[in-house]
Amino acid sequence: NDEKYEIIIGGEDNYVYILKNPPHKVWRYMTLGDVTATPMINSEGHVVVGSHDKKLYKLSIGSADSSITRRVKTPSGWETETISTTALIHQMNFTTSGPILSSAYAGDITGPDSKGIIFGSNDNTLYIIFDNGSVKKRYTLSKDIESSPSVADIDGNNVSDIVFGDNDGMI
Fold it and tell me: Contact at 8 Å (CB) between 18 and 8?
């Protein structure tokens, strides 16, 4: 919200990272599995991301708790740079029966002012949950869901439609 560029990435070291430049800051949160899903930021500024530990996380940015140093190449040579490391604070998680490999949709799920999250899991299920983690709806399919859902009013009836694919090649 400060109009500075931020990069949100997941790692195969079980961490979710937010990198910010300038100033150099790193926010991080450790899950119990690789994070190959693309993290996103919802309208409240929370990071939403799935993990191979079968959980979808909603995280917020906390206060500085430590720093790390790194070597950087500058025009005058190599220099040591200190980067403030801040925690991502757990707000909510939702557990599935399979890893979550794709990014989630976060926004209105049943109309204005009904914030929620839509995502697929490798337990053959598309989940629609409210921001607090309570389940709105589940759709179980025959194969894992590794694609990210898209939400739009496709047929022009003023109702949002959800489009996603699963591993049997169906949309």
Answer: yes
For 40-84, how does the pLDDT look when each residue is reduced to its tens digit (9 = 90+)?
888 888 899 999 999 999 998 776 566 777 787 888 889 887 766
Beta carbons within 10 angstroms of residue 126's beta carbon: 19
Handedness of CA 15, 140, 116, 157 (dihedral sign): positive
The structure tokens listed for 11 are 């790692």
Residues 6+ apart with CB under 8 A from 35: 10, 11, 12, 14, 15, 16, 49, 50, 51, 52
Which residues lie below 8 Å from residue 101, measured CB to CB, with a gap of 6+? 36, 37, 50, 52, 122, 146
Lookup: tokens for 82: 């200190």
Beta strands at 135-140 and 125-130: parallel, antiparallel or unpaired: antiparallel
For the record, the structure tokens of 143 come out as 């194969």
